[in-house]
Specification:
The chain is mostly helical. The chain contains six helices and two strands; from the N terminus they run ααββαααα. α1 packs across α6, α2 packs across α3 and α3 packs across α4.
Length: 139
């Protein structure tokens, strides 16, 4: 996916964020599918027996179970933040906003393949609101 620089929206828009903040959040959201896959893989690992080993190279004890649990919490926090923000933006259109933000899908694709039940202007207004809310959640 190439980054296309678009014109900034007006600073008077209630959901205005800077261009660079938007791209930071956009790239954060594009990691969502990776996090979902990694969480799925870790969930499979936690159900198996894990051998606890010790390492004195650094003078500390290694605890793979705790490391796995911490990683699961880290991933779930980010996944939940994105999903919660999509629901808070528009509960009835959350799945479309989530697909657009996390998979880079355009309104045209959402309309033609997934039959999004709103017009383009409404979708992009909600899309901007999503990133504005996400920006506030990530502060």
């Amino acid at each position: 996916m190439s980054t296309v620089i678009r014109a900034d929206i007006s600073a008077k828009n209630p959901y205005w964020i800077s261009r660079h903040r938007y791209y930071e959040l956009k790239h954060f959201c594009l990691q969502y599918p990776e996090w979902k896959r990694e969480l799925s893989n870790l969930s499979g690992i936690k159900n198996q027996a894990v051998i606890v080993s010790t390492h004195f190279d650094s003078g500390t004890f290694s605890n793979p179970t705790a490391d796995c649990a911490e990683k699961i919490i880290f991933l779930k926090d980010r996944i939940d933040m994105i999903e919660r923000t999509a629901r808070n933006t528009a509960p009835d259109l959350a799945k479309y906003i989530l697909k657009g933000a996390t998979e880079g899908l355009s309104y045209t694709y959402l309309k033609s393949k997934l039959e999004i039940p709103c017009c383009k202007d409404k979708y992009y207004e909600l899309y901007r609101k999503f990133f504005w809310l996400l920006s506030n959640a990530r502060h």
